[in-house]
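I am writing to request your help with a piece of structural work I have in hand. A protein sequence and the structure tokens that stand for its backbone fold form the material at issue. Please examine both parts with care and let me know of anything in them that strikes you as inconsistent. The record follows directly beneath this note.
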Amino acid sequence: MTNQEAHEIRRENDYLKLRCATLEGDVADLSAQIARLQQSLEAGALRRAASAPNPLSGGQ
């Protein structure tokens, strides 16, 4: 392996390490967004369930 090849491999390795770290951060951000959306959906479903009239109550 020549010095040039070794340099190119080190450079690519450094790039891949940085890219991996970036993607790991993106995954963490998306996981947090998913958790917030799930909480929001659950809260909305609870509000709808609480405000929906009960069709069995006779409500006349």
Notes: Residues 4 and 60 are 86 Å apart (CA to CA). The mean pLDDT is 90.
